Amino acid sequence: MSVPTLDDSLVGPASLSWRYAGDQRMILIGPWVGLVQLSLPGLGAGVEQHSAFYTEPWDRFLRSVPQIAGVIYDSRPAETGHGIRDLHHQIKGTDNRGRRYHALDPEVFYWAHATMSEAVIKMVDLLDHPTTRHERETLFREQQVVYARYGVSDRPAPDDRDGFERYLENTYAHVLEKTPAVEAFIEMAHKPATMTQPWIPQPLWRLVSPVVSNPMWLLGVGLLAPSTRETLGLSWTRRDQRKLERLAAVIRRSWPLVPRQLRFMPRAKAAFRREGWPARRYRGTDGNLA
Question: Do 241 and 250 contact (CB within 8 A), yes or no?
Fold first, then answer.
């Protein structure tokens, strides 16, 4: 096992990861994460065979996100990361094409981390501001520190942001497949009223589900690489692109009006309070503390 030796202090209250990874808008990027994760054969098979995702998708999602956020925000983040890793020891088997998989295979585990890391960039680019090269490089370095906290081999990890972008492009175009898991996810997304919800009565959810689910699905498909859309057989038109741009503009304009206490996930807010609220200054888009 090769675990990188990195400066763990890079991911602290002044980091971009603290600033953005716990932002509630990350939830809106969830469908994109689901599509690209479930399209990786080993990861999709693990979810299909070992998860309750298809019977209680939102409940599983809302359980998983705080745990992953804890690897950034908890006071002992490596303990949180090791705990998540240890939950995956028994997730293994054979996929529908006879290929063996294990959730702790570095190629599988790193892809799960890479997509969550890239989701931060996609959220900021689309719903906050266009990221600078410095921000993307900084977030890459910080997220390598976060990955080290899981204690899983870094064998697939690129050395820099340029290499990471090549890794993403290659995986999108040549590795992802229309797995049974992602097929089921797409079918489920087209029938959102059938999903069970942990926070809302089912009759009410049936009424409001199109209002919630349709914009999120638009974001999910719109953020896919064209090669991945082609692999998954998902259409995307100029009209869809215009709708996505209008939706993103509305979110960008309205977000500053949301009370600060509501903008962050509970794990992030707990960390900010621990460090002093408001949190220590964050790096600005020019790389300086602001």
Answer: no
Strands (E), the chain: 92-94, 100-102
Beta strand 92-94 with 100-102 is antiparallel
Return the pLDDT at 9: 84
List residues bridging with 289 in a β-sheet: 283
Helices 106-127 and 30-38: angle between axes, nearest 10 degrees: 150
C-alpha neighbours within 13 Å on the C-beta side of residue 287: 7
3-state helix, strand, coil in the chain (%, to 5): 65, 5, 30
Please write the tens of the pLDDT for every residue from 237-281.
999 999 999 999 999 999 999 998 899 999 999 999 998 865 554
Distance CA 143, CA 116 (A): 9
All residue ranges of the chain with pLDDT < 70 are: 1-6, 52-63, 192-212, 277-290
Buried b (16+ CB within 10 A) or exposed e, 32-53: bbbbbbbbbbbbbbbbbbeeeb
Q: Does the pTM of the predicted model rise above 0.85?
A: yes
**Residue 23 φ/ψ, nearest 5 degrees:** -70, 135
